[in-house]
Amino acid sequence: MLPIHEQFYTFQGEGLHAGRAAYFIRTFGCPVHCPWCDSAGTWHPDYIPEQVARWSVEDLVTEVAKTKAEFVVVTGGEPAIHNLAPLVDALHAIGQQVHLETSGAFPIRGEFDWITLSPKRWKLPLPETIARADEFKIIVDQPGAIEEYVAIIGETDKPVWLHPEWSRHQDAATLDAITEWVKAQGAPYRAGWQMHKHYAADLKDARSATPAPLGGDPKKGY
Fold it and tell me: How far, in Å, CA of 196 to CA of 81, rounded?
């Protein structure tokens, strides 16, 4: 049984697989606690639900099989705090590819087809998870964030997406920093965006949870 915060059928809004039909499974729980978390319902005491649903692997796979998803995305919270290998194996058994979105701070259990690693300064990624990543997503939340996380990731030829932290997605300085970095460095750096938020795509599925973004609000104490 896995603690599941939400699951929904939508499209992937980020990264190399953006725009493709995807089934999202968002696990509950996260020890990283980013101050601008856009899924605070998975861990923040002000937003966590009174009851957390627990799903069997078999029931999750049954829900996925009802859709035409091209792949399943397991995300969080921080999904790697859970043993995901049985879920991955069961999804593979019905012909589904399985992607993971993780901070990389915990060992990854399961043979995923694609791993997106988004490093966080509050709990740094492990060297072995950096080595397993297929793409990286840097959240640009403050001046110097790009340089900080590039140093953590190290030299790579895999795509490195630069995303404005969403509460700053209209901040000219943040957007200009991303633009200038991509222009100056070229590959593997790419300007990133969260397309699904403009479409409100995730919310079209009634099973998706009410958004609970922190947006770096110091009044929350994070």
Answer: 26
Tell how strand 135-140 and strand 97-102 pair up: unpaired
Check pLDDT > 90 for residue 212: no
Cβ atoms of 2 and 58 closer than 8 Å: no
Q: In what order do the strands lie in the sheet with 2-11?
A: 53-55, 2-11, 21-27, 71-75, 97-102, 114-117, 135-140, 160-164, 189-191
d(CA 64, CA 98): 11
pTM of the model: 0.95
Which residues, at least 6 apart from 219, have a Cβ–Cβ distance to it below 8 Å?
none
Q: What pLDDT does 213 receive?
A: 86
Q: What is the C-alpha to C-alpha distance for residues 125 and 152, in angstroms, rounded to an integer?
A: 8
Domain spans, the chain: 2-128+195-220
pLDDT of residue 219: 60
Provide the pairing of β-strand 2-11 with 21-27.
Answer: antiparallel
For residue 67, the cross-strand partners are none
Helix 145-153 vs helix 172-185: crossing angle, to nearest 10: 40
CATH superfamily of the domain spanning 2-128+195-220: Aldolase class I (3.20.20.70)
| Identity at 116, one-letter amino acid code | T
